Amino acid sequence: MSPVELVNLHDIPLGRLLVLAGQRATNRWNKLLADRFGLTNSGMSVLLALHGRGELTHGELALLCFVKPPTLTGIVDTLERSGLVERRRDGADRRAVRLALTLDGAVAAQSLITLIRNPRPLTSVDVDPEKAQVIREFLLEIIASMTDTEAAEVPILHGEESS
Known about the structure:
The chain has about 160 residues and is mainly α. Helix content is about 55%, strand content about 5%. It contains 7 helices and 3 strands, in the order αααβααββαα. Strands 1-3-2 form a 3-stranded antiparallel beta sheet. The chain starts with a helix and ends in an 18-residue tail after the last helix.
């Protein structure tokens, strides 16, 4: 069999197509984040979570960003060096540290939210609102079934703004 015969996308199971589409979208998104904002996808998740919820503890932020606390430490270190996030001592308990956006971090988060909320469809299929809703429900169910947190409650998924 030649390599061309192996790659007939119409014959690939839906789960594999989802993975392939996710990889392609992730690669394009990561390039845009790096080129335009100097961020990784993980860094973006932190900025959006802090923008949506305000100051958070390390553990709260790790949960919202779908990472383990030790992994979050490196992400926050990078964002802190970039001047986007700061660690603040809790006034009530000096041992506790809360994470917060700096002014530059808030500006970057708002720019990301504007970009995420761009109403331009990704494909000719999601131009149709009914089809887009089916796709949305499918993706939200996958996300919710693979996490400990309900997808609708996670600010990084929809760029929710602070109230």
